[in-house]
Amino acid sequence: MEYMFPSHRWLCKDEADGKVEVEIYPSEVLEIEKLINYEVTVVTGDVRAGGTNANVFCQIYGDEGKTEVLALKSRSNNFERGTTEIFKIEAHDVGKIYKMRIYHDGKGIGDGWFLETVDVKRLTMAMVQIEVKKEDTKKDKKKDKKKKKKEEEEEVEIVEELREVVETFTFPCNRWLARDEEDGEIVVELLTEDNEDLEVNSYEVHVFTGTMWGAGTDANVYINIYGEVGDTGERRLRKSNNLNKFEKGQEDIFNITAVDLGVLKKLRIRHDNSQASAGWFLDRVEIVDNKDDTTYFFPCKRWLAIDEDDGQLARELVPVDEAFMRKGDDDEEDSEATLGLEQKAMSTTYTVRIKTGEKKYAGTDANVFMILYGTKDDTGIINLKASKTHKNKFERGMIDEFTVESVDMGPLKKLRIGHDNCGGGSAGWFLDWVEIDAPSLGQKLRFPCGRWLDKGEDDGAIVRDLFPNPLQTELYTPFVPYEIKIFTSDVFAAGTDADVFIVLYGRDAVCTQQKSLCVNKRERMMYFERGAEDMFIVELEDVGDVIEKIRIGHDNRGVNPGWHLDRVEIRRLLRKGKGSETVIFPCECWLAKSEDDGETVRELVPSDIITEKLSRDGSLKVTEVEVEDALETHTYKVSVMTGDVYGAGTDANVFLTIYGDLGDTGERKLSKSETNSNKFERGSVDKFTIEAVDLGQIFKIKIRHDNSMVSADWYLDQVEVLDVDTEEVFLFLCERWLSRKREDRRIERVFYVKGYEGVREGLDSKKKNSALTVKSVDSNMNKKNKKKKEEEIELPIIPYHITICTGLERDASTTSRAYVIIIGANHTQTERLWLDLPDGRKGYEAGSLESFESHGWDVGEIKKVELGHDGATPESCWLVDELSVAVPTKGVKYIFACKCWLAKDRGDGLTARVFNVLDAEAVSISQKVIYEVTVVTGDVQNAGTDTQVFMSVFGANGSTEEMLLQKNEDRFERGQEDTFNMEIDDIAPLRKMRLRIDGSGSRPDWFLDKVIMRNLTTEEVSVFTYEEWLSRTRGPKRTMICEMAAVVDEEVMVELTTYIIQVKTSDVAGAGTDANVWLIVFGENGDTGTLALKECNKSNKFERKQVDTFRFSDILSLGDLSKVRVWHDNTGISPGWHLEYIDVKDEIMDKTFRFPCDRWLAKNDDDGQIMRELPCANNDYLDLNEKTKYEICVTTGDTAEAETKENAWIVLEGRKGRSKEFVMENSSKKKRFLRGNVDRFEFSSKNVGDIAGISLGHTPKDGKKVKGEAYWFVEEVIITERELGNKYIFSCNAAIPLSPKRDDFLTFECTKTVESFASKARSLVPVKYEIIVITGDEKGAGTDANVFITVYGSNGDSGRRQLRQRFRNLFEREQTDRFVLEMLDMGDLQKVRVEHDNSGLSPGWLLDRVEVTNTANGVTTIFLCGKWLDTKRADGQISRVLYPK
User: Fold this and answer.
1) What HEC string does 551-587 produce?
2) How would you class 884 by CB atoms within 10 Å of its CB: exposed for 0-12, middle for 13-18, buried for 19 or more?
3) What are phi and psi of 334, to 5 degrees?
4) Could you write out the three-class secondary structure of 1073-1100?
5) Which of 20, 128, 438, 558 is most solvent-facing, going by the fewest CB within 10 Å?
6) Number of helices (H), then strands (E), in the chain
């Protein structure tokens, strides 16, 4: 374990709290490798000059692995003649020890050393059997004492106990480790004394250097041979049979003595890059095991050089079968067998990316080295010399890339990275992180560091061990190796230095990424010369068993980039058994702008497949098959139609990709138009020919331009693709701008074929999907819960709305990725919900307020919320001010005042914290239901739009606010059905919908076909049909707003009617007005929307004592009306208006509703309001003190035990009183309370007001005695009050015991009340509300903008009211402003919306809170805000919705 104790405080008498002693607690406990104690005793022989001054090292091998190399050193002068030294060492537990290696580095004078013996003591904790006396239990009985004594002596128990155990292993040596004694070796491997199975063996190592120019080296070469039983350790190849070792075409033979390794598995060979021109081409290594005389072949055929191949100085080689080695010898030509593919498949290639920090002097010129540690082995020292990305490595803020190969290391567990402090004063290095990507394992690990490797910074270390951060681990499908051979033709100027890339396609359009074969300019110069055969081994996605086609091309850069390609051969290993298959793709043509058809990209299909298999007798069997059913090359004629609108044409370069179910064409530039010399002009059609391998059914295209030249904006009307071979036509209706200035400013778009049914993905959604797949596996983060999860049922997925407020201190911002985990009762929890910022922004700025919508499992009642981020370096600190989590489907929101650091080196050092809901501020928000909304756009020319679309839905139980429907890149386009989920207030059953467009955007007109809404909980479907334009300029209505009636099961919920509205102005001096007047009528089915009172029977409207009649036809009937809202805009001379009443007549219902007013709507009369809400006068006649009827519906549980044959009784507890007891009879003729049944009863009673609770009893018929226990299980009770139709729902789910006593009953509280329309309309009486607005106390908190408020309650909303007072400067810093507004009784207040119009000099406003008091009943509701309404701060919003505390 590693414990971190953060402190960050003064220990000083005169600083902070003056304490000089402090208790600190660990912030994080990391599990690190477990080490145990070893004691190594070394006895130096009593021989003349037996001692040494060299540095001595040892390595211990056991059944469970090996330790790292351990340096044996202490403070005293060690290893003197005849001494015995003891070293205490902590190292990895290797289990039972079988051998050790001990050596010295030959430094110092008289380095020869005579070693007598080594003892290793291994200290571990183990279960040991111990004898313990048994204690007797029968102490109190005085009988048989004598017996007892005897027993005590005999009874001994054996128990196991955990004790520290010492095991000793002795290794006799008795030999010199000296260059000038015996065999000259300074390395020796020792076996334990009592060892029987193993013996020391010698290996003959033959090293063959290649024959090419510059193949030899004078550097020091080191080798390490691995077998089934351990390895030899790294040995320098010193004594060869040749004086000058490792020269071109030479064979060098070395002897290595080691404990027998068993069957050899691999070897690692490296050189230290010393001396001039150290690059070395190693052909192969052969090792002869002298004990049983077997030869192992390790082919290499690669450079070990920083300026050749992949720049590695070390290679790991694996042995191959002799048959593969012999394969080359049979042919006449000198064709060597290439086994790079086999070796690649057995080894793992790691791409290492190293990021130097963004700090002053962060870079280094020192030599950087690295060791990767897996669970089985490590890579040894890797010198990071050849960066693929930069010549000058490890400079500030740069990322350098290296390749490392290793065989069978096991999963990576840590890496060690350091430097040698060379390079003068600038050796210090600030390392940010190391990222290691292993495509063949399908994992990418991130090792954070964020510290200096500098003798003069931090803790002075220049070597650090780094561990992977599990939160940043990415998993993906593992890649497989392909050997790609490219044959350039032997034609004049056939070669190229351009960047050649390749893509492989399997069946069903599975393809790899586009892979460049050369990494840098040096390689591009080297490869693809005339007549050359170049081999590349690349790791790419697995495309399945069949390669259907490949695409190969180049970027046409460099001098004479034209290239004549003869053929491509791709070899890969067979899935089963030993062997490989080679697929041949003939080309034999130019990829050049100046030759043939000018194409630089070709698609090739296979002609032959050659399979090599190793048969049982050890020979190679080669079969060659012609490919019969290869895909044919098709010609596609593409017609591109540019729209006929102003500025539609473009001169930019246009690129097209066509996707079919068999594959895609890759991106092709549309260069030569067959119809116009000037392409893509307004209203023109351009035709292009594309050759590609058969794509099958084409379903989408991707088209983009590069925004070059003047006025690059392009309006694309449609694209037509004709497959010449099958004569099929695929039509893509586009009708969109590709422009950096218009619509959503994109210059790349995806279009689907007309009538496409499948799932559509935008350009962005691809990223999201891939991210989702990565996140769902989240490497090992969710392992702990995985086991539980499997047993559980899948929980439903619900939306969570999360907002995060970042603090304002220095370093408060972070660029890490943040996440939350929501935890419910009994350990249910969501996955990590990653909070990735939209628009690809990186990081949370100081003082920002970010909002996210995530989807996660429904964990029931939330208990805790974990917030964290994936930053693991000390730099990635983050100060979180406030976190809020809202669950719309539950109607709650929790606000956590965090005010804490999430950082390794701030506060208490945690990067993740769990917040308990009990500490949060819980706020009730309006509960939402999730609907699946499908919007169908008509198939009419230019039907699509990019305008803002707003929707409001009206139901029997209220209405929603206006909601913006997100365009999301490609919704609301011609002929499309767009389906998405929306959270909508629980107002079902739906009655009608209003859609409004605001006419913004480049294409403001929209032809709406219909909207379908499906309630995901009840599966009820409502259809709203329009089939007309929403537009200022098109269609018969020329309207931008429409209302549609809901159709449920082919029944229309509301019908059209005509409203005749009569407005009577009072007979008061100055009563008339010339201002513009508007009206909204409210009823059972919502409201009419804003009606302008313009067209009238009188020319001069609203004059004193005049009645004006307005007629509105084709309006969806609202049913019974409840109120009207009337207002004017205060224009004209003396705009004050005294209104007597308004009459509204519904022609279909033939009913008139009267709305009396008799008040001024004037700024300088009465209370100064120019907006009034008038309740309907028709609703007053009901007298509620009389008797009324109650209908009671009882649902009995659906199990056999639930039903009863006896009677039941109920008492209603109301706000005005308590009813008498109603007996619910159960007669033999009419059986009640059967399982799963719903029984209805009706009772008359005095009106008890709102029902708050009920008592339920269960009694035997005619007072019989009760035998045993009997129950009646009640699921729910619904009570309807008949006069007004209010409903009270009680969820009981309880068993009621049968009892003759009257005082045995259960009580239940009301779970839900559904207030009827009549009841709501009755409660609409004018009430004065006092609104207090308190502005915050921060610099610049006040505003001079105009402020508006809308209050929402259970009876509807107030409309948007301006908060104004005369002659007073409102909303200044730390000021309290009071306003009185008269509104119709809102019922329970649910939320308020506060907004300002951003006018004035500094309109930003910090609103602390709003308090609303209903002066009629004295109830005050407090709405906390504490946020800025400022376009430049927080989230830039100037409108906030506040919920009651």
Assistant:
1) EEEECCCCCCCCEEEEEEEEEEECCCCCEEEEEEEEE
2) buried
3) -85, 65
4) CCCCEEEEEEECCEECCCEECCCCCCCC
5) 20
6) 7, 94
Helices (H), 1280-1412: 1317-1322
Query: Reading across the β-sheet that carries 921-924, which strands appear in turn?
Result: 849-857, 797-806, 878-887, 892-902, 921-924
Predicted local confidence at residue 783, as pLDDT? 38
C-alpha closest to that of 1317 among 993, 957, 984, 953: 957
3-state SS string over 310-329? CCCCEEEECCECHHHHHHHH
* Six-digit token string for 1115: 């309006």
Could you tell me the two tokens for 460? 């002075």
Q: What pLDDT is stored for residue 765 in this prediction?
A: 52
Q: Which residues pair with 355 in a beta bridge?
A: 399, 433
Q: Which amino acid is at 126?
A: A
- Residue 174, classified by CB atoms within 10 Å of its CB into exposed (0-12), middle (13-18) or buried (19+), is exposed
Q: How far apart are CA 39 and CA 1299, in angstroms?
A: 80
Nearest to residue 898, comparing CAs of 862, 867, 923? Answer: 867
CB 1440 within 8 A of CB 1392: no
Strands 1405-1414, 1389-1396: pairing kind: unpaired
* pTM of the predicted structure, to 2 decimals: 0.79
Task: Give the model's pLDDT for residue 135.
Answer: 55
C-alpha dist (Å) from residue 1258 to 43, 440, 1201, 1297, 1331: 94, 71, 15, 6, 51
Sheet hosting strand 347-356, strand order edge to edge: 399-407, 347-356, 429-438, 443-453, 474-475
At 830, list the tokens: 């969501």
Q: Nearest Cα to 92, choosing from 64, 73, 118?
A: 64
CB 1297 within 8 A of CB 1319: no
State the 10-residue block means of pLDDT for the chain, 1445 residues long.
Answer: 77 84 77 84 90 90 88 81 90 89 86 91 79 58 52 64 84 89 86 84 94 91 91 90 92 93 91 88 92 89 84 87 58 47 81 92 91 87 86 91 87 92 83 92 91 88 91 88 92 90 88 86 84 88 88 88 92 80 92 83 90 77 83 91 92 93 88 89 92 90 91 92 92 91 89 84 52 36 40 77 92 90 90 87 88 92 93 85 94 92 81 92 90 93 92 91 88 90 90 93 92 93 94 89 93 93 94 94 92 88 93 92 93 91 93 93 87 83 70 91 89 89 86 89 88 91 78 92 87 89 87 82 88 94 94 90 88 94 91 94 93 94 93 91 91
Contact between residue 1257 and residue 1304 where contact means Cβ atoms under 8 Å apart:
yes
- Tell me, what's the pLDDT at 334? 36
Cβ-based burial of 1321 (10 A; exposed 0-12, middle 13-18, buried ≥19): buried
CA-CA distance, 995 to 1030, in Å (whole number)? Answer: 9
CB atoms within 10 A of CB 787: 8
Alpha-carbon distance 261 to 264, whole Å? 7
pLDDT at 326: 59
For residue 593, the 8-state DSSP code is S
Contact yes or no for 291/270 (Cβ under 8 A): no
- DSSP annotation of 1305 reads -
Cβ-Cβ contacts under 8 Å for 544 (sequence gap 6 or more): 506, 507, 510
- CA-nearest of 1051, 977, 966, 983 to 1008 is 977
> Could you tell me which of 820, 856, 825, 855 has the C-alpha nearest to residue 835?
820
Which parts of 761-823 fold into alpha helices (H)?
763-777, 783-791
User: Can you give the pLDDT at residue 1042?
Assistant: 93
State residue 144's pLDDT score: 55
Question: What token pair was written down for 1240?
Answer: 């209805």
